[in-house]
Amino acid sequence: MAAPSMGGVSLPRGHGQVVRLPRGASLTDLAEKIGAQPAALVTALFHLGEMVTATQSVNEDTLQLLGAEIEWDIQVVSPEDEDRELLETFDLTFGDEGDEADWEARPPVVTVMGHVDHGKTKLLDAIRNTNVVAREAGGITQHIGAYQIVTELEDYERPITFIDTPGHESFTAMRARGAKVTDIVILVVAADDGVMPQTVEALNHAQAAEVPIVVAVNKIDKEGANPAKIRQQLTEYGLVAEEYGGDTMFVDVSATTRQGLDELLTAILLTADASLDLRANTEQDPQGVVIEGKLDKGRGPVATVLVQRGTLRQGDSIVAGDAYGRVRSLLDEHGNKLKEALPARPVQVVGLTSVPRAGDTFLVVEEDRVARQIADRRQARIRNAQNASMRKRISLEDLDAALKENRQLNLIIKGDNSGTVEALEEALMKIEVSDDISLRVIHRGVGGITKSDIDLALADDVIVLGFNVRAEGQATELASREGVDVRYYSVIYQAIEEIEAALKGMLKPEYEEVALGTAEVREVFRVPRIGNVAGSIVRSGTITRNSKARLVRDGVVVADNLTVESLRRFKDDVTEVRDGYECGIGLGSFNDIKIEDVIETFEMREKPRA
Ligand code: GDP
């Protein structure tokens, strides 16, 4: 059979075959995959009313439109899936390998979060200086983005790794990029100040990531410090201290006097031991995450990486994001050269050809060549993605498609005061939709919409509601670049109405049958090539061509699921015939029609929801 043509250029039909394309692909990319001429696809799209050039990125909707036309099932692949597939072509996977029984215990990785000025930086410095090993080594400790200390618990030396960039940004930025680095969050709250907006923000981040929290009640040396009040305040957020019967460890500390630091380290280890089974395969090819990257004047690109599995060694061929190279040297936070780095060990890697980004994953591969090829392919992909004309995150309008699977709408609520935020949240939670859809507020707070809010929204496909507040500088830019849906309201009920409507759109539609008309069969005609046609008189309503129909004989449904495929009055094809008129009705290949049968027609209409 000749290929069907469109606009004079022939196109290979896919007959429903699947073709996978990365986000941001162009018609040239598609053409290559399906063996077509790019120009033919451009023409085809033009006939569908879309003007694009062959090399321009095409958004998913347009690709689907074109796919339907040329009978290819076009699937747009996410960057994560794409990267997985890229690695698969080299027979690589990012993840744990081997038998869990052979894995070895690894230290916990801890991130410190909390409100500004509550002492995160000071606490990280104080902990760094507890390190016996470091003091003995005598080297000058450098900031490399993470460090490891060793503490004693029940006569065992136990290392703990700290991510040395306090604050939520690195935490959420990494999470947004799919890197799960943190095992435990230390929530720092100043005892003389109490729970503040960023305290809440931090704990929301941690809870959204399902990371256990240890609370460090800091500055207990200060006058007016009230550690009991902090415990009290945090119960409202689901953090109940062990001494009150909960399962969160609270430790009173002072970063200044160093009081309570040992207890804090113990609490971290106990929390890790109680709720996490931290193990890693030390034998497999090393993999992990980039914590920090920079260009050093003398040494070139330097990246601090956290080994997550395997043992990283000097001389390894490594690919980190779109950077690659050979590990020339490994340095710890004291500037000491290491021969190897075990899981949970942060280490500076020298020898990359370019600077990877925080949150990029790294892998060690067999050959330099493979590392370079992977890096090249990723670079090409990053370029493509940047060129993509549109990168759609979830928005209220396309909730339905986006949330088909998890049927949960995540929200972040920011408002001008805590009263309105609470009122809005409460009202939203009262919206009743149905059992299979839920609304979850993953973060709420007072103040403008920050970059950190948008980061959080990115990680979870969230809609951000601003009540009498606006997005601040960088946040606006990030939100629009990443396509995060940010909505502003100044009237509560308006917000509720919109969310309610969106949730209703999320529901699987319910259909009901609506009767359109009935006709009685007076005669049956045999028409060549068409089959039997019912010469009928319309008894009620209207008979419409293409409507659904059933055939009833003596009050019994003989056939359901029929379609009025032809409808004629005398010799003319018509689209509808009203009651009282005669017509010829053809029911497609269904021929069992008898005189006095009744043809009922109906359509399925989406039921409006109450
Ligand atoms: P960050 O913004 O959370 O990183 O807070 P910093 O670590 O920069 O600390 C903010 C201020 O609080 C600094 O002036 C610190 O010296 C002070 N500070 C931090 N911890 C303590 C503490 O335990 N006791 C006292 N008295 N002051 C502290």
Automatic annotation (TrEMBL):
What start and end residues bound the annotated signal peptide? none
> Locate the Tr-type G domain: which residues?
105-277
| InterPro entries, alphabetized | EF-G-like_DII, IF2_II, IF2_N, P-loop_NTPase, Small_GTP-bd, T_Tr_GTP-bd_dom, TF_IF2_bacterial-like, TIF_IF2
One GO CC annotation, please? cytosol
Where found, per UniProt? Answer: Cytoplasm
Q: Which UniProt keywords apply?
A: Cytoplasm, GTP-binding, Initiation factor, Nucleotide-binding, Protein biosynthesis
Residues reported to bind GTP: 114-121, 164-168, 218-221
**GO terms assigned for molecular function:** GTP binding; GTPase activity; translation initiation factor activity
Superkingdom classification of source: Bacteria
Record's PROSITE patterns? Answer: G_TR_2 (PS51722), IF2 (PS01176)
Q: Does the keyword Nucleotide-binding apply?
A: yes
Q: Which family does it belong to?
A: Belongs to the TRAFAC class translation factor GTPase superfamily. Classic translation factor GTPase family. IF-2 subfamily.
Q: Which NCBIfam families match?
A: IF-2, small_GTP
Q: What HAMAP family is this protein classified in?
A: IF_2_B (MF_00100_B)
Purpose: One of the essential components for the initiation of protein synthesis. Protects formylmethionyl-tRNA from spontaneous hydrolysis and promotes its binding to the 30S ribosomal subunits. Also involved in the hydrolysis of GTP during the formation of the 70S ribosomal complex.
> Under which name does UniProt file this protein?
Translation initiation factor IF-2
Supply the gene name: infB
